[in-house]
Design goal:
The protein is an alpha+beta fold. The chain has one domain: Aminopeptidase (3-Layer(aba) Sandwich). 28% of the residues lie in helices and 33% in strands. The chain is built from 5 helices and 7 strands. The protein has a 7-stranded mixed β-sheet, with helices on both faces. The longest helix is centred in the middle third of the chain and has 16 residues. The model has no long low-confidence stretch (mean pLDDT 95).
Length: 175
């Protein structure tokens, strides 16, 4: 499978919304920080926000020409813009385990290091999301922090887990 990442085209907004949010009980929602209890936007809200169009920190994941997921980044420190975290979702459960996320994350980290001068990129997940934990390790990221028992989901506490990689570490992996 050929995986690419690219900006979302304006005419694809409805397609992305249908893929991501048309089913509020989609399997991916049980793994993407479910303890936050985020509410999916309506199609009208999603289209009005235009958060995915012409946003350099949001792209879609395409596999063999089909939109299958999304990849993003956000500044943990707001306007200071020195601490960038990434996020990734493969919306189609049937594609999980085929390393699409691994390919997309490698492309995204390379892209973000190229367009920023930041020394570090990272992500935060929870200990219940074993796929994301394995993904971080698979691309060469290191577990940098673990805040124990702070994510409460379905009657159980989980750890919040931070992964990261330094620019020079990424460079060595790419050589």
């Amino acid at each position: 499978m050929t995986v690419t990442i690219r900006p979302l085209r304006a005419d694809e907004q409805t397609t992305l919304w249908q893929l991501a949010y048309s089913n509020p009980n989609a399997e991916w929602t049980k793994w993407n920080g479910p303890y936050f209890h985020d509410v999916a936007p309506t199609l009208a809200e999603f289209l009005a926000a235009r958060r995915w169009v012409a946003n350099p920190l949001r792209q879609v994941i395409v596999s063999d020409g089909e939109l299958v997921g999304a990849i993003s980044a956000y500044y943990e420190d707001g306007d200071l813009k020195r601490w960038l975290e990434v996020g990734l979702v493969i919306y189609r459960e049937g594609l999980w385990g085929q390393h699409l996320g691994r390919q997309a994350l490698r492309l995204w980290l390379t892209h973000l290091f190229a367009i920023t001068d930041l020394p570090h990129l990272g992500f935060t997940t929870w200990s219940g999301n074993e796929r994301m934990l394995r993904l971080g390790a698979a691309v060469g990221m290191k577990e940098e922090g673990r805040i124990r028992q702070v994510c409460f989901w379905q009657g159980q506490y989980y750890d919040s887990v931070k992964y990261g990689i330094l620019r020079e570490e990424w460079r060595k992996i790419q050589d």
